[in-house]
């Protein structure tokens, strides 16, 4: 259902990414002083990750894992959405913990764990894909960089 929506409106994910990149550092800088809220928002941002990657789907798998290394672009709607999926939780977790680099690495590791679960639990009806891991990892890097910018902006405001 979500894939169908994104294919019909391929401009949605790039637009959302631009908004997150522009607004994220400022919102993150504000959240530095509101750590509990940042933690709550991080947990809420992880809900779509869990739903979109681990919720069972009703389909039959023909292949368990796909090894491809295509970079996400706006033309590759699903891949670009995978990139976007990890930006908000990593940004928020980076601000909440003030460890943006560690959180970015954990985002990539979490994506790898999700792909492993998809490979080992065929009942989910999901297939693992190295391209998904790559896109999620790039999203983690973007989220980490945005968290770094937010922390730096907050430090400057405090000085």
Q: Can you describe what's shown?
A:
This protein has six helices and two strands, in the order H-H-H-E-H-H-E-H. The protein is globular, with a radius of gyration of 16 Å. With 159 residues, it is mainly α. It has a two-stranded parallel ribbon with strand order 1-2. The chain has one domain. The relative contact order is 0.20. The mean pLDDT is 91.
For this entry, give a set of tags:
mainly alpha, two-stranded parallel sheet, 6 helices, globular
Number of domains: 1
Which percent band covers the strand fraction? Answer: under 5%
Order of secondary-structure elements: HHHEHHEH
Uncertain regions spanning at least 5 consecutive residues: none
- Strand order in the largest sheet: 1-2
Averaged pLDDT, please? Answer: 91
Largest sheet: 2 strands, parallel
Quick rundown:
The protein is mainly α. The chain has six helices and two strands.
Task: Describe the secondary-structure layout.
Blueprint: H1 2-8, H2 12-31, H3 35-54, E1 65-66, H4 77-97, H5 100-120, E2 128-129, H6 130-158
Parallel strand pairs: 1-2
Transmembrane segments: 12-32, 37-57, 77-95, 100-121, 133-154
InterPro entries: VanZ-like (IPR006976)
Keywords: Membrane, Transmembrane, Transmembrane helix
